[in-house]
Specification:
The chain is built from 9 helices and no strands. It is about 75% helix and about 0% strand. It has one domain: AhpD-like, CATH 1.20.1290.
Length: about 180
């Protein structure tokens, strides 16, 4: 299934999401690897099968390399863990937890197999989907150090928001039909 086919499955009440999905697929603020990696990271971050399949198909058609696709999936995986852990540290009022070492393996972050800025961008996308402010601040600061513009970060966040919303609608419609 392509993104166009996915768009056709969206109900009328989600027309804005369909239009946003189409315009973001044509986004030019990000390079193709950044853009399609952001789509893949967001889709895997939410995990709705139909959306994952459509995004994977479109990303492959657009030429996203296997290495970049794997790195985007790795960003979703590692952020799935980190976002819960670091969001919890932020929400717990006891400061003792903030000084304890995380003792969680995060080796992929040091050697993601793609440009570090791209991996940071995809980690930002998943952190937005998962709502971790501490991780968003950390990754956005790293992106700035790599020279990524505010417009590029915003484009990635827009992809995160739309893929998340489309995924929620697709999941809800599947639940309603069951």
């Amino acid at each position: 299934m392509s993104l166009d086919a996915l768009r056709e499955t969206l109900p009328a009440y989600a027309k804005d999401l369909s239009l946003n999905l189409s315009s973001l697929a044509s986004e030019t603020v990000l390079g193709d690897q950044q853009k399609w990696g952001a789509f893949v990271a967001a889709a895997y971050g939410v995990g709705v099968p139909a959306v994952v399949q459509a995004v994977n198909a479109q990303a492959a058609e657009a030429g996203l390399s296997e290495e970049a696709a794997t790195a985007a999936k790795a960003a979703a995986a590692i952020m799935g863990m980190n976002n819960v852990y670091y969001r919890s540290l932020h929400l717990i009022s006891n400061p003792e937890y903030k000084i304890l070492p995380a003792r969680l393996r995060m080796n992929i972050m040091a050697n993601p197999g793609v440009d570090k800025a791209d991996f940071e961008l995809w980690s930002t996308v998943v952190s937005a989907v998962n709502g971790c402010g501490m991780c968003l601040d950390s990754h956005e600061a790293e992106l700035k150090r790599h020279g990524v513009s505010a417009q590029q970060v915003q484009a990635a966040l827009r992809i995160a928001a739309v893929v998340n919303a489309v995924s929620r609608v697709v999941a809800a419609e599947m639940a309603a039909a069951a």
